[in-house]
Every structure is written in structure tokens, then in C-alpha cells.
């Protein structure tokens, strides 16, 4: 489960190779970010990697791979039954026995994962220049060394765009009104 159990994904995907539905194989490289969320069930950890194609028509090409996987929500709030339902298992930390952790495996993805793939498909079909193209995606299951053995893992392969992502788009002062309007206009144009 990574070196530090409070690091959601840690090093468990370093240098891993992933085969996608289109037959290409990509090696995960430098991790750009890592986060977790528990707004929807099941809770989910995700990490974003720069990746290199090792098998396929463009060996050496770079792209982005986002890894999304079922995760344990390590917060104990017995006074809030909704959050208690999200914890896997019913404790502060994940159960040390993978057989116990596997009892809560879900084949159903977190809603954010489904929505991201749908949004990328829509924007790719529309030819949006302001969002990465969805190149492929695939899914798998976690093994006994991961948070929820048998739980889902989804790998999303997308184009690596130049520049930087619009981080904290909604945070006041991060972007001028003119910059935010330019980004909005690019999305409106792509969705027509």
C-alpha cells in the first residue's frame, strides 16, 4: 500500500506499464499529482503521471495517464452515519489482512471517474483545443498489496498538452477575469 499508508497511491505505480484498449503499452513516469476524495461512494484515490509509449505506433511519445482507484476513507466519525458508510473497513486505518479489505471491493466506479471519461470523450469528439484528447482507457483490479484487493483501478490515457493546467480556476485572484473568460470561451466553442 505504498511506503506511507497516508500517502494514497505513493510509489505503487512507479514505472508500471499499462496496456490500453487500443493495444498500446505505456510506462508511467514522473508523478505530477496525487489526491483522494470521498464525496461519493466508493472513495477514490487518484494520481497523474507523465507516461511514455513503449509499444505501439509512436514509441517514445509522451502522454498523461491518470490512475483512479477505490480507496479507504480513513476517518472515524461515528456521529455521522453517512461518512461511516464510506469507511472501508470500519476503523481508523485499513485492515492489515487483504482478505478482510477485499470484502469491500467495488466494481462500481466513483461517479467522478465516469464523468471524467464522458467529459473527455465529448470534448475529444468536439475537437476541443482547450482540453486534452482522450486517447484510450482501461480498467483493472487491485491486487493484495493495494488498498482494496479486487477493487477497481481505472487508467485514463490522454494527450499531454503544452502549458500548465488551470489550477484553482475558481479561486479568486488566481486568474484575471479576462483569463477566465478566455478559458470559458474555448470550452463553449468546443462544445458547439
Helices and strands in order:
Blueprint: E1 17-19, E2 25-37, E3 44-55, E4 62-70, H1 81-86, H2 98-102, H3 111-125, E5 134-141, E6 152-159, H4 177-191
Antiparallel strand pairs: 1-2, 2-3, 3-4, 4-6, 5-6
Report the span from N to C terminus: 44 Å
Instruction: Output the number of helix runs.
Output: 4
How many discrete domains?
Answer: 2
- The CATH architecture of the largest domain would be 2-Layer Sandwich
Helix content: 10-25%
Uncertain parts: 1-6, 75-92
* SSE-based structural type: alpha+beta
Mean pLDDT: 80
* Spatial strand sequence of the major β-sheet: 1-2-3-4-6-5
% residues in beta strands:
25-35%
Largest sheet: 6 strands, antiparallel
Number of strands: 6
Radius of gyration: 18 Å
Helix/strand order, N-terminal first: EEEEHHHEEH
CATH class of the largest domain: Alpha Beta
CATH fold-level topology of the largest domain: Phosphorylase Kinase, domain 1
Query: Which outline best applies?
Result: globular
Structure description:
It is a single chain. The protein is of the alpha+beta class. The protein has two domains: 17-161, Phosphorylase Kinase, domain 1; 164-192, no CATH class. Helix content is 21%, strand content 28%. It is built from four helices and six strands; from the N terminus they run E-E-E-E-H-H-H-E-E-H. The protein has helices at residues 81-86, 98-102, 111-125, 177-191, and strands at residues 17-19, 25-37, 44-55, 62-70, 134-141, 152-159. A six-stranded antiparallel beta sheet has the order 1-2-3-4-6-5, with helices on one face. The radius of gyration is 18 Å and the shape is globular. The chain starts with 16 loop residues before the first strand and ends with a helix. Mean pLDDT is 80; it is low at 1-6 and 75-92.
